Amino acid sequence: MALASTIGERVAMLRARVDRVAEAAGRPAGAVTILGVTKTQPREAVLAAIEAGLSDIGENYLQEAREKYVGLPPVTRHFIGHVQTNKAKGIVGLFDIVQSIDRLEAGLAIEKAARSLGRAVRVLVQVNVSPAERFGVAPADAAHLAQQLRNEGLMVDGVMAIGPLEGDVDSAFAQAREAFEAVGGTTLSLGMSADWERAIAHGSTMIRIGTAIFGARPAPERVTA
Ligand SMILES: *Cc1c(COP(=O)(O)O)cnc(C)c1O
After folding, report:
1. Is the CB of 208 under 6 A from ligand 1?
2. How many structural domains is the chain composed of?
3. 195-217, pLDDT tens digit by residue?
4. Is 109 in the pocket of ligand 1 (CB under 6 A)?
5. Looking at the domain assignment, is residue 160 inside a domain?
6. Is 97 domain-assigned?
7. pLDDT of residue 166
8. Is 84 close to ligand 1, i.e. is its CB under 6 Å away?
9. 215 Cβ below 6 A of ligand 1
10. Which of 1, 6, 39, 181 has its CA 20 to 30 A from that of 155?
11. Alpha carbon of 144 to ligand 1 centroid (Å)
């Protein structure tokens, strides 16, 4: 199938490039996880990426994931969209990691949902390092939020940030890295199709890749509600 072989080739090439960039930054091959961002992509594309070796996939919208993620092979599923508290139960039911906790209220809703469903969920603190981004806690407040979340029993495993489309990407990534060091955990989720190489240079342990794996998104992107 053409779609599957194209996606398979892109995943293999990306994996090789990511390992080279990691090694150039003094880190071992395999140190950086590739998270396939599947928004707007059909289920066949998601299956092809998993078949090509992706172990982590992510979605921005619960509704979209509901249609696509049922009955997939075992992979780690990441929620990377804005957390609406009334969707917390649905999110916890479908995802293993919520990368986008940017306020205590969202964390509390996720924790409550996890408890009621008897599911263990890991979370990342979303840090805002770009003037164009609406969501995310200020880098200086990340450690405090992480502490509050841990006090509530949540497993906080690091930081997620979305880099700026233009301007000083390096200083934005440095802020994300600093927030990650203050928060602790194993995951710095940083870097997308256009900026992942620099993100790895700044210590990213997980890059979130959509277009570089799946091609241009078919539908115009919805604005996060
Ligand atoms: C869409 C999206 C990505 C992937 O973006 P690409 O530029 O297509 O790689 C990564 N992270 C988040 C939060 C996204 O919404």
Report:
1. yes
2. 1
3. 999 999 999 999 999 999 999 98
4. no
5. yes
6. yes
7. 87
8. no
9. no
10. 39
11. 26
Mind giving me the DSSP string for the chain? -HHHHHHHHHHHHHHHHHHHHHHHTT--TT-SEEEEE-TT--HHHHHHHHHTT--EEEES-HHHHHHHSTT--S-EEEE-S---GGGHHHHHHH-SEEEEE-SHHHHHHHHHHHHHHT---EEEEEE---TT----B-GGGHHHHHHHHHHTT-EEEEEEE---SSS-HHHHHHHHHHHHHHH-SSEEEE--TTTHHHHHHTT-SEEEESHHHH-S-SSPPPPP-
pTM: 0.95
Q: Whose CA is nearest to atom 13 of ligand 1?
A: 80
For ligand 1, whether the C-beta of 193 sits within 6 Å is yes
225 pLDDT higher than 50: no
112: CATH: 3.20.20.10
CA 86 to ligand 1 centroid distance, Å: 24
Residue 39, Cβ neighbours under 10 Å: how many?
19
13 is a domain residue: yes
What tens digit of pLDDT does each residue of 147-190 get? Answer: 999 999 999 999 999 999 888 999 999 999 999 999 999 999 99
- Pocket of ligand 1 contains residue 209 by CB under 6 Å: yes
Specify if 219 maps to a domain.
no
Give, using CA atoms, the residue closest to atom 15 of ligand 1.
60
* Alpha carbon of 215 to ligand 1 centroid (Å): 12
For 26-44, the pLDDT digits (tens) are 999 999 999 999 999 999 9
